[in-house]
Amino acid sequence: MIIDQIPGQVDGELRQTLDTVASVCAQVAQRIRRGGIDENLGAARGTNTDGDSQKALDVIADESFASALRGGPVRYYASEEVEDVVELNPAGSLALVIDPLDGSSNIDTNVSVGTIFGIYQAKDEPVGSVLRPGRELLTAGYAIYGPQCVLVLSVGDGTLKYVLDPDTGVFRLVGPMGPIPEESTEYAINASNYRHWPAPIRAYIDDRVAGAEGPLGHDFNMRWIASLVAETHRILTRGGIFLYPSDARKGYERGRLRMVYECAPIAFLIEQAGGRATDGLDPILDATADALHARTPFVFGSANKVGRVATYFDLPEEETSALFGKRGLFRG
Ligand SMILES: O=P(O)(O)OC[C@H]1O[C@](O)(COP(=O)(O)O)[C@@H](O)[C@@H]1O
Ligand SMILES: [Mg+2]
Ligand SMILES: [Mg+2]
Question: Which residues does the record give as substrate binding sites (predicted)?
């Protein structure tokens, strides 16, 4: 077993699949460590279905996961890097959704990138097996390829953290992640998109930028790594909030991140660790994507902070467009 222990009831096929995924994550980590020596992992390789520029490592990771899983318990394989759902084994019983390499813009800069995945019980056809509420996930997880290679996993009984032991090649359970702290002052958003955001999001960020001189009366701190897995790992570790809202740019009407293989698995892990994950208003895990690469606005993190974002959408127009000096002081 490459994952040393998974508490709770995990049947043989699911356990086998998780071990296969973890072993490919360990291979991807090794390949990243040698990037530039053996190959240029950041080299352009065209574009994927969602219009993202594909890097060599996107394609390498996708092909590594698909070939390792072929012929095993996974019937359907739904990847960010492939247009449609692929049938890996007609006799399989599971459906796996995956972002093989998340944070691709960081590959050349040696900043943490990752892999995001989720596993469902397969239905008798491909689309219905993956376009479904994330609450039906059997398990979800991510690997983060940073100073440590860490696997964060949930099988529905809390969120667990495993560190890859470089000496043995085993992911060692080091403990639970969460409950996500609520007292953090950190928020993560790509502030360069400010002018494109809906008014309630601008108001939410205005109040935090105003800090001690604004309605909230204390200062905040901002982070933006442009690697969803790294932001998630920080928030699971010390709380805070992440926002990628819809915006007025063409193609960003439903934000940037994809429901099936990014937001639903991350939302599963966040809720399992006591946090919340919404589209700004409604739980991600209750939503059903209308297409494999469909995007969704995505807000997740400390439960109290995610709830606070929703209150800004209830504010009257004059409240969200006014400078914070005229806004009510009731918002925390
Ligand atoms: O470049 P932007 O607009 O800030 O978006 C950054 C976001 O895009 C992503 O890189 C999208 O994921 P991929 O790299 O898998 O396409 C996220 O990891 C990250 O949170
Ligand atoms: Mg991604
Ligand atoms: Mg990706």
Answer: 102-105, 190
